[in-house]
């Protein structure tokens, strides 16, 4: 059976972008593949989280994974820092990567602009740590969002380069996996292209109905269509993306027709979006609360997942050491 690996950084709660961009893929894949999903607490160090937040955030994300439908009987969930073998493979991959190619990675350049006083080495080598997360399990597929496609290409480069340097066929080149035919990019409510925690434009899976309605009603719009059948500007296309992922086809077509004949009322559109988001989020939110109250269960699931992940990573590292020349 093919292996699937992916993870999410515990820098806060899961939001709709995480859910539609990755977690729905996780749920779909656990029935079809040997799946390992991890909570990337080492990755979170690139943004300097407070020490007291790290363990709390890991438990929060684990509870939310479970609430979204990941079944620990089908897929193993573990915390990245519980698998120390990852760091050794990360070191080996860093020895084969070049400064120039790491500096050209878009996510590095974006983060360097966002946090100019904290452009750390971990930020630069984020792609090689991600490659180690994936390749230690010799994964074949990785559920990813649109923003991770370049990092996935770097992971494939790590696999190809190692195989080429040592004349082996150890690592498969992991392929991107999307819940739909292409990556789902959930927009921000502020009119930006992507929902993200750092931009403050998220709807979180734990949020109450009133908070969701308030956020959606503040979403950025324009003055309305000026001619029939005109192209939707980005801020309006963003709203229609929410309809596409949370509403039924009939609802989408209704508002699309209203746009095309210039009779659309943004207030009505936002109210519909809010109610459909609430319909999506409410059962997940209720399950989150149940899981978060059971820390013993969360810790047991994480421990069981770590045991499986360590065994998988250790088997790979044993071969890697032998190939490179270490006893």
From TrEMBL:
<feature type="binding site">
    <location>
        <position position="186"/>
    </location>
    <ligand>
        <name>ATP</name>
    </ligand>
</feature>
<dbReference type="GO" id="GO:0005524">
    <property type="term" value="F:ATP binding"/>
</dbReference>
<feature type="short sequence motif" description="'HIGH' region">
    <location>
        <begin position="10"/>
        <end position="18"/>
    </location>
</feature>
<dbReference type="InterPro" id="IPR001412">
    <property type="entry name" value="aa-tRNA-synth_I_CS"/>
</dbReference>
<feature type="binding site">
    <location>
        <position position="133"/>
    </location>
    <ligand>
        <name>L-tryptophan</name>
    </ligand>
</feature>
<comment type="similarity">
    <text>Belongs to the class-I aminoacyl-tRNA synthetase family.</text>
</comment>
<keyword id="KW-0547">Nucleotide-binding</keyword>
<dbReference type="InterPro" id="IPR050203">
    <property type="entry name" value="Trp-tRNA_synthetase"/>
</dbReference>
<dbReference type="InterPro" id="IPR002305">
    <property type="entry name" value="aa-tRNA-synth_Ic"/>
</dbReference>
<dbReference type="InterPro" id="IPR014729">
    <property type="entry name" value="Rossmann-like_a/b/a_fold"/>
</dbReference>
<keyword id="KW-0963">Cytoplasm</keyword>
<comment type="function">
    <text>Catalyzes the attachment of tryptophan to tRNA(Trp).</text>
</comment>
<protein>
    <recommendedName>
        <fullName>Tryptophan--tRNA ligase</fullName>
        <ecNumber>6.1.1.2</ecNumber>
    </recommendedName>
</protein>
<dbReference type="InterPro" id="IPR002306">
    <property type="entry name" value="Trp-tRNA-ligase"/>
</dbReference>
<dbReference type="GO" id="GO:0005829">
    <property type="term" value="C:cytosol"/>
</dbReference>
<feature type="binding site">
    <location>
        <begin position="145"/>
        <end position="147"/>
    </location>
    <ligand>
        <name>ATP</name>
    </ligand>
</feature>
<dbReference type="Pfam" id="PF00579">
    <property type="entry name" value="tRNA-synt_1b"/>
</dbReference>
<dbReference type="GO" id="GO:0006436">
    <property type="term" value="P:tryptophanyl-tRNA aminoacylation"/>
</dbReference>
<dbReference type="InterPro" id="IPR024109">
    <property type="entry name" value="Trp-tRNA-ligase_bac-type"/>
</dbReference>
<keyword id="KW-0436">Ligase</keyword>
<keyword id="KW-0067">ATP-binding</keyword>
<feature type="binding site">
    <location>
        <begin position="17"/>
        <end position="18"/>
    </location>
    <ligand>
        <name>ATP</name>
    </ligand>
</feature>
<feature type="binding site">
    <location>
        <begin position="194"/>
        <end position="198"/>
    </location>
    <ligand>
        <name>ATP</name>
    </ligand>
</feature>
<comment type="subunit">
    <text>Homodimer.</text>
</comment>
<feature type="short sequence motif" description="'KMSKS' region">
    <location>
        <begin position="194"/>
        <end position="198"/>
    </location>
</feature>
<keyword id="KW-0030">Aminoacyl-tRNA synthetase</keyword>
<dbReference type="GO" id="GO:0004830">
    <property type="term" value="F:tryptophan-tRNA ligase activity"/>
</dbReference>
<feature type="binding site">
    <location>
        <begin position="9"/>
        <end position="11"/>
    </location>
    <ligand>
        <name>ATP</name>
    </ligand>
</feature>
<keyword id="KW-0648">Protein biosynthesis</keyword>
């Amino acid at each position: 059976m093919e292996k699937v690996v992916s993870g999410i950084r515990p820098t806060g709660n899961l939001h709709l972008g995480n859910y539609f961009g990755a977690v729905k893929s996780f749920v779909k894949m656990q029935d079809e593949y040997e799946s390992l999903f991890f909570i990337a607490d080492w990755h979170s160090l690139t943004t300097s989280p407070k020490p007291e937040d790290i363990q709390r955030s890991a438990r929060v994300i684990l509870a939310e994974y479970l609430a979204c439908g990941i079944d620990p009987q089908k897929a193993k969930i573990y915390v990245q820092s519980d698998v120390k073998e990852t760091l050794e493979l990360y070191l080996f991959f860093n020895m084969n990567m070049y400064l120039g190619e790491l500096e050209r990675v878009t996510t590095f350049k974006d983060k360097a602009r966002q946090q100019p006083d904290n452009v750390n080495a971990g930020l630069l080598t984020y792609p090689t740590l991600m490659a180690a997360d994936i390749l230690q399990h010799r994964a074949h597929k990785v559920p990813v969002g649109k923003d991770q496609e370049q990092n996935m290409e770097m992971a494939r480069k790590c696999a190809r380069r190692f195989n080429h340097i040592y004349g082996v066929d150890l690592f498969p080149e992991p392929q991107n996996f999307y819940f739909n035919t292409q990556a789902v990019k959930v927009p921000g409510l502020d009119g930006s292209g992507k929902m993200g925690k750092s931009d403050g434009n998220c709807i979180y899976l734990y949020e109450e109905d009133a908070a969701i309605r308030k956020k959606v009603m503040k979403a950025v719009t324009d003055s309305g269509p000026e001619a029939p059948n005109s192209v939707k500007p980005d801020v309006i296309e963003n709203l229609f993306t929410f309809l596409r992922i949370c509403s039924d086809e009939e609802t989408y077509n209704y508002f699309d027709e209203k746009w095309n004949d210039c009779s659309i009322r943004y207030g009505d559109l936002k109210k519909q979006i809010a109610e459909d988001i609430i319909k999506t989020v409410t059962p997940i939110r209720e399950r989150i609360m149940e899981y978060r109250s059971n820390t013993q269960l969360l810790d047991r699931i994480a421990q069981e997942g770590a045991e499986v992940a360590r065994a998988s990573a250790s088997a790979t590292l044993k071969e890697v050491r032998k190939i490179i020349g270490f006893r």
